[in-house]
Amino acid sequence: MNWSDFDAALFDLDGVITPTAVVHMHAWDRMFNDFLAGYDDQSPYTDDDYFRYVDGKPRYEGVQSFLASRGIELPFGDPSDAPSATTVCGLGNRKNDAFEKVLATEGVEVYPGSKLLVEQLAERGLKLAVVSSSRNARKVLDAAGMLDFFPVIVDGNVAEAEELAGKPQPDTFLDAAKKLGVSKDRAVVLEDAVSGVQAGRSGAFGLVVGVDRGAGREALLENGADVVVQDLEELA
User: Which molecular function term from Gene Ontology is one that the record holds (predicted)?
Assistant: First the structure.
């Protein structure tokens, strides 16, 4: 691809810039399987469930999506619910507690190829943003030493405050492009989740890049990616 055809790059965070998707996956696994232990008729939560129902979605939507797949109904509750609460928000907060403990104790690394691409695009003068469903995006970028590259961060907190629909809707990406002052047809979306490439395609962005960290090349292409890479170094 020719980066001179574009003015901005809109990066998802988990699984695209940092391997925190693995930490998220472990936190979801622990939370859901502890929860499902109370149901005799439920099989364990698996990585396949993560990619089908949780990956790329805002936290509470991910909880709702998975529970619906199992026919389990819980009250939604409130984002202020304690992690011990048996509500959608309570389960989401329980997962977030597990994630934050790992982040605080182990920190986070950056994919070398992603760091290389971000640095090169910054040198070229492209405008950069992070668009993440996570409410921890700023903390993760700071821990990874990448915060200064991204003047615009549209995360779960911004989406809630501005009432933006989460992925697979394109609203958060469109908001990031607007805040960068670029037109969507001159912006590239870089995503590893099916819901993320769906958002990029429905938003009619200039290019949608799928990063295959486990969702599968064909699934990313079928859901809106124009091109799929295994590592962002391929685009540097």
Answer: beta-phosphoglucomutase activity
